[in-house]
């Protein structure tokens, strides 16, 4: 069981612009956990700490707790819930079925939604339009779930009265969503077509812990511009 005053025992290796880092920062803030953030600079060689902490993928994001590394954002969020289960709020449902549904939609966000958003962000021409359409379709599926799924319908957040696992998984992407829309001059979440999802996103982004963790969406535009201007590299 984790104890109080662990800033020196909890470290987070990441990049502030990463939506996956945002997820973990929100979870840590909700649980009131102090930690040391170690910014990784991709312009420099990977640090010994990063390579030691994630020898398989050799990349961020990594949470280090008492010297033990945990990788992958939503695995880290679930670890935070279990390691600090005595701290409110509960980030995961207590009911086994509700927990399974939450994990299903988290997997949908990571396996379906984010890849199409990323492809749209870096796409051009017909490819860009195609990925925007795929992304919108994915968001419409989430809108439908908010309308019809008993686990979510009529509740302010996916987690109920408080934000939970799905809120963190999807909401952690909110600055990136805005960044993609601005960078590609597209609309991914239409308030008229997706009123429930749009209202949820507004509520989520008004939370203080979310505001503090979110990067400026304009920074994504700069990243896209730089990537588009970079010459292709051979393998």
CATH architecture of the largest domain: Up-down Bundle
Q: Summarize the amount of helix as a percent range.
A: 40-55%
The level 1 CATH classification of the largest domain is Mainly Alpha
Report the strand count.
4
Major sheet: order of its strands?
2-1-3-4
Strand content: 5-15%
CATH structural fold name of the largest domain: Glutathione S-transferase Yfyf (Class Pi), Chain A, domain 2
Distance between the termini: 46 Å
The largest sheet is:
4 strands, mixed
**Which residues form runs of ≥5 with pLDDT under 50?**
231-235
Q: Shape from CA axes?
A: globular
Structural class: alpha+beta
Gyration radius, to the nearest Å? Answer: 18 Å
**How many domain modules?**
2
Order of helices and strands: EHEHEEHHHHHHHH
Number of helices: 10
The whole-number mean of residue pLDDT values reads: 89
GO molecular function, one term: glutathione transferase activity
Keywords: Transferase
Pfam families: GST_C, GST_N
Enzyme class: transferase
Describe this structure in words.
Helices cover 54% and strands 7% of the residues. The chain has 235 residues and is an alpha+beta fold. The protein folds into two domains: 78 residues, Glutaredoxin (3-Layer(aba) Sandwich), CATH 3.40.30; 131 residues, Glutathione S-transferase Yfyf (Class Pi), Chain A, domain 2 (Up-down Bundle). A four-stranded mixed beta sheet has the order 2-1-3-4, covered by helices on one side. Helix 1 links the parallel strand 1 and strand 2. The chain is globular, with a radius of gyration of 18 Å. The C terminus is likely disordered. This is glutathione transferase. It is an enzyme of class 2 (transferase). Its EC number is 2.5.1.18.
């Amino acid at each position: 069981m984790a104890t109080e005053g662990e800033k020196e025992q909890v470290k987070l290796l990441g990049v502030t612009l990463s939506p996956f880092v945002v997820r973990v920062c929100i979870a840590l803030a909700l649980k009131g956990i102090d930690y040391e953030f170690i910014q990784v600079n991709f312009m420099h060689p990977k640090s010994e700490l990063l390579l030691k902490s994630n020898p398989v993928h050799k990349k961020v994001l990594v949470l280090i707790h008492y010297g033990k590394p945990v990788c992958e954002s939503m695995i880290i969020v679930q670890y935070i819930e279990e390691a600090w289960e005595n701290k409110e709020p509960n980030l995961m449902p207590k009911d086994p079925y509700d927990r399974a549904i939450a994990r299903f939609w988290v997997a949908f966000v990571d396996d379906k939604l984010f890849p199409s958003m990323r492809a749209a962000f870096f796409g051009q021409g017909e490819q860009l339009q195609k990925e925007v359409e795929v992304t919108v379709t994915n968001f419409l599926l989430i809108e439908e779930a908010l309308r019809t799924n008993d686990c979510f319908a009529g509740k302010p957040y996916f987690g109920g009265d408080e934000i939970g696992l799905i809120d963190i998984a999807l909401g952690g992407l909110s600055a990136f969503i805005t960044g993609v829309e601005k960078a590609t001059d597209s609309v991914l979440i239409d308030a008229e077509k997706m009123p429930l999802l749009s209202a949820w996103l507004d509520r989520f982004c008004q939370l203080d812990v979310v505001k503090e963790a979110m990067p400026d969406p304009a920074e994504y535009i700069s990243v896209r511009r730089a990537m588009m201007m970079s010459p292709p590299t051979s393998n």
